[in-house]
Amino acid sequence: MMQGGILPDREIAALFETGAIAAPLPRDGDQIQPASLDLRLGAKAYRVRASFLPGAGQTVAGKLARFSLHEFSLTEGAVLETGCVYVVELLEALKLPADVRATANPKSSTGRLDIFTRVLTDGAHEFDKLPAGYEGPLYVEISPRTFPVLVRQGSRLSQIRFRTGEPLLAEVDLAALHATDQLTSAPGANISGGGIALSIDLSGDPAGGSDALVGYRGKRHTGVVDVDKRGAYRLQDFWEPIHRSQGGELILDPDEFYILASKESVHVPPAFAAEMTPYDPLVGEFRVHYAGFFDPGFGHSAAGGTGSRAVLEVRSHDVPFILEDGQIVGRLVYEHMKALPDRLYGLDLKSNYQAQGLKLSKHFV
To answer: What residue stretches are annotated with the 2'-deoxycytidine 5'-triphosphate deaminase C-terminal domain (predicted)?
Structure first.
């Protein structure tokens, strides 16, 4: 089978030109990323009783007719409340070529706001996966977990990647790439399970001394966050700082939301894209990183990076869980790009999280 690869920016643009991607409004100028496309909310939202998948031969619209509690407009903006589940039809619809399939993920800023999003399609048996040749509308399920959020038509919470063939690197190829390109700063990289391991940093900046900052925990009962406003909110109104403990551990409280950082810096060479595996039951009953796409150029020197740490959105399930400094919490898998993108993640795109350390979403100052 041909290697194939992740479609780069110019091939995503070509999908618009051929009608494989269509929308009723013109494309935003910055909507196409080096290896993905931002998806925009449409004009109408539905509050639903519970999450659902349509299943074979069923449409999302048909399920909404059964499970919707009420519908409302997003044209002037609307607040989505925590603890509720919403479904919104996206502006973009697809008519994919027979050899192109896709996967979706929350955008980085979406994950850092603890907004749980999943893309679904007509006939889907699973979220966030679109089969080759899919033709039809796209919808997104939205569930704010920590902060109520203000969204509107055109807000971009999710992103989609298109691929052909089997571009995933095998472990032997990943080891060879790490040997030549230093994919993480770890002195002895742990490559297994199809990816390269990342561990948690609970020691913080040595310059911070015994009180070094290691993360943030989301506050409850806060004000509303407008997802389209940059630098509009005071950090202290929404987040509780977490400082290094004497023993170098952190007890995750069930259903609380944490922003932490990897101990290693990460590097994605221009000819590759990476994705964080969101959950590994072998490392504990918690979920790490809702927003898993790492674009070509992330942490790359040619794109203004010197290695960038992965910021991790962490939530424990059911029981308290103790994280310790240096504990493995997830893995990065790498895939070949089908071709080099015209622009890399970084300086050319004014990317929000290049050369980052521990960093909240772009909404906070």
So the answer is: 173-364
